[in-house]
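We emphasize that the prediction below concerns an isolated chain of 128 residues; any contacts that depend on oligomerization or on bound cofactors are therefore not represented. The input was used exactly as deposited, without trimming of termini.
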Amino acid sequence: MGLTGMAVCTTCSPEAYCFTDCHSLVLQKLKENLDINKGNFSASAVVSELDWSADNGDNKVWDSSNSIDCVVATDVVYDAGLTEAFVKVLVKTLRTYKTSLAYVASTIRNIETYKHFCTCLEAAGITR
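Result of the prediction step, given as a token string:
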């Protein structure tokens, strides 16, 4: 877990990188993988819980001392019930950090879920 983030940290040399998820087992595995691989890059990398459906108003991801230049999201369009919550978090991030850019990589598991995702992006004013 965290393969894309590890690749970004290794090849793009960001100053900092935050790996997120909402499941405790995934977060633990991310921490383990980060510990194993952190010698391969210079980024200051952290693992943080981020639950799209929770009220994230005080989440440290949006701490005023942070600067988010880019969102890299992979395998996040899989449940139509979570799509609106994910787009809401994406919009909050893009609006909070005006220079932010987002890349969402997704396998189309279910065409209806993907269409719903595209509809949510359009409704939020996000272009693809």
